[in-house]
Amino acid sequence: MSALLQLLVNGLVFSCIIVLGGIGLSLVYSIADFANFAHGDLMTVGAFAAFVSAGALAGVLPDVTFFELPLALYVGLFVGMAAAALVAVGTEWLVYRPLKNAGSIELLITSIGVALAYRALIQMQFGSGQRSYAIDRQGRVEWLFDAVGVALTPRDFVVIGLTLALVVGLHALLQYTTLGRKMRATADNPNLARVSGIRTREVVLAMWIIGGALAAAGGVFLGIDLLVRPRMGFDLLLVVFAAVILGGIGSVYGAMLGGLVIGMAHELTPAIPFVGVEYASGVAFVLMVAILLLRPHGIMGEPA
Amino acid sequence: MSAETPTTDRSASATNRILDVDGVDSGYGEVQVLSDLSLHLNEGEIVCLIGPNGAGKSTVLKTVFGLLAPWTGQITLRGEPIGGRDPADLVRDGVGYVPQVDNVFGSLSIDENLRMGGVARRDGLEEVIGQLYDRFPILREKEGAKARTLSGGQRQVLAFARALVMEPEVLLIDEPSAGLAPSIVQDVFENVQTVNDLGTTILMVEQNAREGLRISDRGYVLDQGSVAYEDDADQLLDNPEVSRLYLGGADYA
């Protein structure tokens, strides 16, 4: 029982990373109308920006830690989010805006090129090897282990807590602010949004900023959980796609739900008899296919 | 001039032109739909565009509203050229547009739909939404419901109301009765008339030509992208040739 609970908690950490990547992917799909294959590499951009800034700040900022993570890494997280948002907006300006009359397929192919460009630029600077954030090895939180028998490190708390805060913040933005309503309106019916006098540019910019920042947070959390590598985001992209499609592509809330389900499925693989952990992604995809057979537009998706 | 025709000329302020479309060609991509089309709106009128399918009626509205750029010719609003300007700007200049289909945000609540209609308002949003709720009580009743749960007729009311949040001077309406049950069509035309009575000038495309002309001051018959006839609405209804060619024969209604 507690072994299963342990797998579920592991899944929750992985789910957080998928959810953060999935939200931006779904936003871009719903508002800019294409599947952005560069979104995984945007996560990498954020992770590396955090790596560089946390490294630079380590000697400058006071040497304090929260949940056994250095202050410099928290600041690095925000720098990474800002950097990825900036890169996303810059890419829109440089690449996607001049292509505004192109179709979804052309934009998809273009985004593959953008993904390769991001990765090549990172590898030019950092090589293709792996790095890690300056984090001390962490043991499990003892009181939690004593109480429910689940081993969770302090940094897992950070990942889960900050993801929750970001998701709640996004929910509040979408539901209760004019910008959020404009974003939902534009995703729902872009033509009517234009006709209503909504300045679509403003909405598109907000979308890239939010999508980029959340992708970066996901990238940093992946780096905290594992390692920082130039291929980290790209390797995750298919699983993020699976989550977004499962949840209903174009729906932000679907992306959250899909991320949760896929992350859990991924980490629950050890509990399935005769299936090795190497097949974790396979299990996630089988689950996606199974759910799509029942709900072809995803859990929260609506028929076109 | 107006003194000679006091009975038929309901557009008393015939000289007070609010919208002018002059010699416009327009279309989609390479395909030309409108050729040398001219029409105008006087302040306070309801003007109805009728004509066979494919005559370019909706294209006129889309071109006026900046959804399509005119290839040639001029469009002016109170004398200011507006051809090819962005809809978001036109909304701020007092032009509203009610599309024929997909004219509500289905996943947003009724209240949010109205708020989206007023994104360009600087002030008075709450007041004007309150007034619209008073005028269309069905919307207040369903305020929090998602727009996709509304019936066809209710959607049309919401689509109107959304466009009215800006209190436009000119409202362009694309086939308000399309796809609605005959029993509701009359309500829709009544709403058009109410909006007009409150001072909004209306340019309306209508497939339901007789019904549309009955509530209109003037009408244009479009055929193959140009104006084939223009006259006071009652004159068009009485014109035997128009009746035979465009209104489906004699009036049995």
UniProtKB/TrEMBL annotation, chain A:
Family the UniProt entry places it in: Belongs to the binding-protein-dependent transport system permease family. LivHM subfamily.
The protein, known as: Branched-chain amino acid ABC transporter permease
Transmembrane segments: 7-30, 42-61, 73-96, 102-122, 143-174, 205-224, 236-265, 271-294
Membrane disposition: Multi-pass membrane protein
Keyword annotations: Amino-acid transport, Cell inner membrane, Cell membrane, Membrane, Transmembrane, Transmembrane helix, Transport
UniProt-listed GO biological process terms: D-alanine transmembrane transport; L-alanine transport; L-isoleucine import across plasma membrane
Compartment(s) where it occurs, according to its Swiss-Prot or TrEMBL record: Cell membrane
Keyword Cell inner membrane on entry: yes
Cell inner membrane is among the record's keywords: yes
GO cellular component: plasma membrane
Organism in which the protein naturally occurs: Haloprofundus marisrubri
Any GO molecular function: L-valine transmembrane transporter activity
Domain of life of the source: Archaea
TrEMBL record, chain B:
PANTHER family: HIGH-AFFINITY BRANCHED-CHAIN AMINO ACID TRANSPORT ATP-BINDING PROTEIN LIVF (PTHR43820:SF4)
Signal peptide stretch: none
Gene Ontology terms: biological process: L-amino acid transport
Family: Belongs to the ABC transporter superfamily.
SMART domains given in the database record: AAA (SM00382)
Species the sequence originates in: Haloprofundus marisrubri
Protein name: ABC transporter ATP-binding protein
SUPFAM superfamilies the record matches: P-loop containing nucleoside triphosphate hydrolases
